[in-house]
Design a protein that fits this description.
The complex is a heterodimer.
Chain A: E1 2-6, E2 11-20, H1 22-39, E3 43-54, H2 56-71, E4 75-79, H3 83-92, E5 99-100, H4 107-110
Parallel strand pairs in A: 2-3, 3-4, 4-5
Antiparallel strand pairs in A: 1-2
Helix pairs in contact in A: 1-2
Chain B: E1 7-14, H1 19-31, H2 38-59, E2 66-73, E3 77-84, H3 92-96, H4 112-119, E4 122-128, E5 132-140
Antiparallel strand pairs in B: 1-2, 2-3, 3-5, 4-5
The chains are: A alpha/beta, B alpha+beta.
Bound molecules: adenosine-5'-triphosphate and magnesium ion.
């Protein structure tokens, strides 16, 4: 997992990798909460481009981060959702509360230009 | 009597979360004999992951136990049983409901059984309190119509 914080717009980006299950969710949760609590970002992005697998443990972990960010008054979005991950997201119903925002941070270089 | 199953496989492993990946990947590799699509493989992996995670978190409540997986193939479907000797489920109907979780404080979404039911063609749960749980999943792998020469 890669973490990027853009001071200018107080945006925290987590580029998740590989498989999100019960085992890996625990690690992602710890790291994400640590970063969120020190930066208190206005916006948190979970970039799922390199995620090849996700089950309900991933859903629970994402809902938990959404709640934490909301508690601090920030917005939480997910981006770059592929077909396989999307199926699990849709089934779980979390897309009713969590927004998929595409093109919010394409590539490392354009990141500064994002709002 | 002729056995309808073409092939069979058994797995036995400790209820450690690092084995979740091992279990779903192994079952998916076994299922490739039926020539499934990428989506069908993803469905099987997700369902196995749900069942194994349940045995670890709920069945054994993160203590050490053994999880058993029995896999069988016919010409057109795969049947998988995930078995634990953990604490069992008191009310199966309630457990199957979407969003129901007995451990919401652990950030569980309560979607495991809903995902298994929807991603597979059938799901059966047998459980007895204090003895354990057996989940039987079946997925039909659709074959293209045979091409006649
Ligand atoms: N192997 C098991 N042994 C004991 N109880 C189980 C087992 N599997 C499921 N349960 C019970 O059934 C409930 C529902 O399971 P389900 O997988 O749908 O949700 P969850 O595991 O709580 O949340 P999620 O799967 O979304 O992380 C669990 O909360 C638990 O009480
Ligand atoms: Mg579950």
């Amino acid at each position: 997992m890669q973490v990027q914080y853009i001071k200018k717009n107080k945006m925290l980006i987590f580029k998740l990798t590989e498989e999100i299950d019960h085992h890996t969710s625990e690690k992602i949760r710890k790291r994400a909460d640590y970063e969120i609590e020190i930066h208190i970002p206005k916006k948190v992005v979970f970039d799922l481009e390199n995620v090849t697998f996700m089950d309900s443990s991933g859903i629970g972990m994402i809902i938990g981060r959404y709640k934490l960010v909301s508690l601090f008054g920030g917005t939480f979005v997910i981006t770059n959702v592929n077909k396989i991950v999307k199926k699990t997201l849709e089934m779980s119903g979390i897309l009713k509360i969590i927004q998929i925002e595409d093109n919010c941070c394409i590539g490392g270089n354009n990141i500064e230009e994002c709002v | 009597m002729k056995n309808v199953y073409k092939n069979e496989m058994k797995l036995e492993f400790l209820s450690k979360s690092c084995n979740e990946n091992f279990a779903r990947t192994t079952v998916a590799a076994f299922a490739t004999q039926l020539d499934p699509t990428i989506e069908e493989i993803a469905d099987i992996k997700t369902a196995i992951s749900e069942a194994v995670t349940n045995s670890i978190i709920h069945g054994y409540e993160n203590t050490e136990g053994t999880i058993y997986i029995y896999c069988k193939l016919t010409d057109d479907y795969i049947e998988i049983q995930i078995v634990d000797n953990g604490k069992g489920i008191e009310n199966i109907e309630e457990a199957k409901k979407p969003l129901f979780s007995s451990k919401p404080m652990l950030e569980r979404a309560g979607m495991g059984f809903t995902i298994m039911e929807n991603f597979m063609d059938s799901m059966e749960i047998e459980s007895s309190v204090g003895k354990g749980t057996k989940v039987t999943l079946k997925k039909v792998i659709k074959k293209d119509a045979p091409i006649k020469a």
